[in-house]
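Ticket #4471: complex job returned nothing on first submit. Input attached below:
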Amino acid sequence: MAYHLSIFVENRPGKLEKITKVLADNGINIRAISVASAGEFGVVKLLVNEGDRAFAALREQNITVSKRRILVILLPDSPGAMYDLLVVLSEKNINLEDCYGFVVERKKQAAVVIEAEKYPLAEGVLKEKGYKLLSDQELAAI
Amino acid sequence: MYWEENLETMNEGALKEMQLKLVNQTLVKAAEAPFYRNISGKKLRTLEEIRELPFTRKQDLRDHFPYGFLRTDLSEAVRLHSSSGTTGNPTVVFHTRADIENWTNQVARSMYMIGVRPGDVFQNTMGYGLFTGGLGFHYGAEKIGALTIPIGPGNSKRQIWFMQTFGTTVVHILPSYALRLYSIFEEMSVDPKKDTKLKSFIIGSEPHSEELRREIEDLFGVRAYNSYGLSEVCGPGVGFECSCQKGIHLWEDYYYVEIIDPETGEVLPDGEEGELVLTTLQREAMPLLRYRTGDLTRVLPGKCECGRVHKRIERIKGRADDMLIINGVNIFPIQIEETIMRTPGVGKNYLIEVKTENFMDKLYVKVEVDKEIFEGTLAALTGLQKKLTEELKAEITVTPTVQLVEPGTLPVWEGKAKRVQDLRSK
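Support reply: We reran it on our side without changes. The output follows.
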């Protein structure tokens, strides 16, 4: 199973900087980042190469962080790949709570990160359709 | 010019004599309430002897909730008013029919004093309901025979429409709301001086400066009068400015007035600033003895040109306690604190900020997200923010803006940390 880090931040200059400094100081690499804002505050999702260590380092700095279970799906980096994936999920009436992506290898391979409300069902459906899901170890090795 | 000439202009000696008689009658009545049981048999020979009696505090009203101060049978009470909230018990006040009549008379006397007569149209923009500002003035205005419009607060365009359509002459309004209302007049291109028949504003329920009063008078082309009252002894009508606008006459046939040093409790001479202490002289359901209002003021020395004997106090300077007045609503920080403490998902540290926005008071409550409970979704955070907003609104009746902040960014919980910042423009 894989997870990313979800962090509460106030929507003010310097707040995100503080978080990334903790990661930089600890030599942790960020694979992907997404921000959702509700005006004066928001939630930052961070996908890193060493989740457990990043989690501990952030908590030590009194940062409000939690781990969220995700599915990381490898897709071909080509038109229509995302559409095909979403068809699979929506056919099973699976709602996405969060979704972002990053390129693994230019023009060849991309990864999509999703938080799904029906986690085991989503995982099962995707595996059945032949999608490759990345584990924590595989993520760290990218 | 006078509503009750003999009671308003009697000489000082006669007033003192009357007060002594009324105080002693009140002592007999008060002793019938559980809280005052131990004063039974007490009789004063002079008014000054009232200093031998202990003070009654707001906390006493809370501690002896709900019937500890009620001296009559509940069936004799015809009205109940209450402060906001349920934290540490609200302040609940009962009124008999006679209490309502006396209260009505105080308001009628006050309004008559500033020239309200049958034929006037009185628009009451104060809140009706448990808050005494609405109903208190409503009854007083009707008693005089003015056409009374119980419009209540808010909806500025509608307020202006009523003023224009029905020729409103007298308005009861929060001073801060008066400024806000003027901006709506401007937006609608209505000139209150030319396009309305407004002549008097009654402003009260929140402290305000002389400058603000003059500004309201200039903007609307009216005379604005300062109103004083508190729900513990009835509501509005405890005191009122006369047309001289030089201090608030406290109706001394209804209240015995003292100013004390809030620290030592020592009674201060006229002219010195301290906390206003009132003893009710005609209350039936809930007489109060030496009640500490928490309001800071002073008695103005000398006689008023209007010819009334009743003492005048200066406009209220502030509070002896930590009570906040937000758009006329009385709030204690403890109500906010306890609401935060019982709401899961937020930490113990908090900060209350009061600011002026668009002429009105705006309450901000900053709380830290509890990092042990944080589960990582934006929806949970906005849900938490909404829940705390609703919980606070239910407790204090004012809708705050709840701001979620990161743990460790607010003053640390020690009980004594300064948790209220009043940043309002004076």
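The radius of gyration of chain B is 23 Å. Closing as resolved unless it happens again.
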